[in-house]
Design a protein that fits this description.
Blueprint: H1 2-6, H2 12-21, H3 26-37, H4 42-54, H5 56-71, H6 75-89, H7 92-108, H8 116-126, H9 130-153, H10 156-176
């Protein structure tokens, strides 16, 4: 559709990689798009999505403070940065408790707002070192990629499993409060 709208021929790999670089979407959206929309082999969609998901992470880890300050110069940007900081800090205790493994699991369990972007922001906020954070986030992205690929290959059954898991997690969170 985008190709027809713009009159361009964009390689499917580039589209999948670009989707994977986006916050929130990340490889959780890119892998199913690669497999189901573009008919890529699962392993190729996985590799392209993994690569795309990791592209912004070193930049975020190194320059998040500068990026946040620039975005905060405008009122909507400040609201967004404040919301991201507040939302991300909620997970700080569990990450500190389990250190690098906590960051791997936080990024690796494919739930909304728990991907590589949020993991990088959390690592930055907590003052974690660059290379251990990058490695932990990479391991988490691989874990999430395996889960999303497996669910994608299951088709509708995978969608039902993912939805059921998400509902269970919401109920458990609600039950705690």
């Amino acid at each position: 559709m985008l190709e027809q709208l713009l009159g361009l021929t964009i390689p499917h790999e580039l589209i999948v990689m670009l989707i994977a670089t986006l916050p929130i979407a990340e490889l959780r959206v890119a892998i199913p798009v690669g497999i189901h929309t573009f008919g890529m082999p699962w392993w190729w969609a996985f590799i392209i999505s993994l690569t795309g998901n990791m592209i912004p992470i070193p930049i975020l880890l190194l320059f998040f403070d500068t990026i946040a300050r620039l975005v905060s110069l405008v009122k909507p940007g400040k609201k967004l940065v404040d919301w991201v900081f507040t939302r991300t800090r909620r997970h700080e205790k569990s990450i500190l408790k389990y250190e690098w493994l906590g960051l791997v699991l936080f990024v690796g369990i494919p739930l909304p707002f728990t991907g590589a972007w949020t993991g990088a922001i959390l690592a930055f906020i907590m003052g974690l070192k660059f290379f251990p954070s990058l490695l932990s986030i990479f391991c988490g992205v691989v874990m999430a990629g395996i889960i999303v690929t497996a669910l994608s290959l299951l088709g509708w059954i995978g969608a039902v499993i993912a939805a059921a898991g998400f509902i269970i997690i919401i109920i458990m969170g609600w039950w705690k409060t």
